[in-house]
Structure formats: C-alpha cells, structure tokens
Design brief:
By secondary structure, the protein is α/β, with parallel strands linked by helices. It folds into 2 domains: 3-29 and 38-161, Rossmann fold (3-Layer(aba) Sandwich); 167-264, Arc Repressor Mutant, subunit A, CATH 1.10.10. Helices cover 37% and strands 22% of the residues. It is built from 9 helices and 15 strands. A 5-stranded parallel beta sheet has the order 4-3-5-6-7, with helices on both faces. Strands 9-10-11-12 form a 4-stranded antiparallel beta sheet, with helices on one face. Strands 2-1-8 form a 3-stranded antiparallel beta sheet. It binds calcium ion. Calcium ion (CA) binds at residues 15, 49-50, 92, 94-95.
C-alpha cells in the first residue's frame, strides 16, 4: 500500500502540509483493498483557500477517478454548489468571504441536499457537532490522510445513493462502473480510465455540446495544454473499440460537432 504524506497543520501556520511517517497502521486498517476499487468520474467541488492543500489533494483525487473543481472562498463555493454541477462538496470551514458553516447553511436553506464533507482544523467537539447540525454528511479533522478523505467520499456517496450503483445507461450505451466496460449494442469493450471518464462526461449530459477545452478540464483536469489533440485521439480510440459491429449503419452516439467539440447524441424514442 502506498502511503506518502498527510495534510497537516503545523503550529503557527493555518493549513500546512508536512511529510508524515506515522499513522501507517491506522491507514492500513482503514483502506483494506478499496484503494483499487474502480470509480465513476464523480464531480467533486473542493472549497479550500489554502492552495498548498488543494495542490496536494487534487492529484490524488483525480488519480482516484474524481473530477475536481477547486474554488478558494466561501462565496465562490456557494455559487458553484448552487450551479448543480457537482456530486459532492469538500468544504473547508475557515474560508474568506463566507465561512464553511455559513455556506452550508445557505445551501441547505435552498433545500439542496448535495453531500458535503467538512474539512477543518477546528476539531473541537462543539465545532464538529455544529457542522452536523447545519447538515454536513461528514466532518474530517485536519490533519488528515488523503486516503481517508477518499474513503469517506466513497462512503458518503454510497450512503446517499442508497445502493451501489454499478451501471449507467443512456440510449443504447451502457457503462459498467465496476468493470469499466462499455456495451454498445452488444459490443463490449474495456475502457481506459480517460476513455471511461470522457464517455461518462458526455453521457451525463446527453445532447449537450462540450468543447474540447471543457472535455480537457472535466476529464484531464485543469492546466492542460489547450492545443493538444488528446481529446480527438481518445474519441477515435473509443469509437474504434465500440463501433465495430454497426451493421445497420447506425452511428455511434458520440458525435463530432465540427469546429466546436463533441456531444452524446440521444435521439427521441
Ligand atoms: Ca482555510
């Protein structure tokens, strides 16, 4: 098992990151075999003003299959949450503009039940209880292990869904979230993580046109060279894998929108 660092608060600094050689026994008992469990590309919103913490956790969250959006203050966090574009929120408590408690209170006032995990160096029992009182789904004290954060995200999502969702289907295309296989009209093919995330990204918003830049951001993460042709190459690979048996000439549902990008075409039944 891989265990490298944990996010930790140093005395005198608000949210610092330090190498860690302790806690391996704890982490080993918490993780069991789940760290290799395949994931859907759930969309996480990270609201965290400490850039170093964000830079530390985002690569691991992305490697675990999550799509992560990062904002740095409470007001931006609130707006992002209310946009409805995320599946779960990781919410720091001590934030500029609005603190995490204020953000969640406003979110719950609107009736929005999005899963929220607080991250906070405010670890006293009254703080944690206040977080749950407002409507948090979990509360993870800093310092924390990224592996534990991932385990808690998975647990909250499984609880919220009420069941283990292992498949999504749109039109005639099915994605198995466990085996990461796609099935289009009887042609079954395993997809790489990127291929899978790309197909899922398009499937979750049928008929919506995504630019290459939006796909790069959603699937590959931020700060990716916009000149790259990896999206087109990835789409070609997906089509090659799944479009082999289109005997009746029915086109594969991922459609190229010339000069713009791609969309998952869902015809009216
Ligand atoms: Ca903070």
């Amino acid at each position: 098992m891989r265990l490298r660092c944990r996010v930790q608060q140093r005395p005198g600094s608000r949210d610092a990151i330090a190498p860690c050689g302790t806690g391996a026994a704890f982490a080993a008992t918490q993780l069991s075999n789940k760290e290799h469990m395949p994931l859907s590309a759930s969309r996480l919103l990270l609201v965290e003003d400490e850039v170093r913490i964000a830079e530390f956790v985002i690569p691991d969250l992305s490697a675990a299959g999550f799509q992560v959006t990062h904002v740095k203050d409470g007001a931006s966090g609130l707006a992002a949450i209310l946009s409805g574009e995320h599946d779960l929120v990781i919410l720091d408590v001590m934030l500029p503009v609005l603190d995490g408690f204020e953000v969640l209170a406003k979110v719950r006032e609107t009736g929005n039940a999005i899963p929220v995990i607080f991250l906070s160096a405010r670890n006293e029992l009254p703080d944690r209880l206040a977080g749950f009182e407002i409507g948090a789904d979990d509360y993870l004290p800093k310092p924390f292990f990224v592996e534990e954060l991932i385990a808690r995200i998975r647990a909250v999502m499984a609880r919220k869904s009420g069941k283990v969702i292992d498949e999504i289907q749109v039109g005639e295309l099915t994605l198995n979230l466990i085996s990461r296989q796609a099935n289009w009209r009887g042609t079954v093919a395993p997809l790489s993580q990127r291929e899978f995330s790309l197909v899922e990204c398009l499937m979750r918003a049928p008929n919506r046109i995504f630019s290459r830049q939006q796909i790069l951001k959603n699937v590959w993460g931020i700060n990716f060279n916009p000149e790259t042709n990896v999206v087109d190459v990835c789409i070609q690979r997906i089509r090659k894998k799944l479009n082999r048996q289109a005997r009746d000439g029915k086109p594969f549902p991922i459609e190229t929108i010339r000069g713009v990008g791609y969309r998952f075409q869902l015809e009216d039944e």
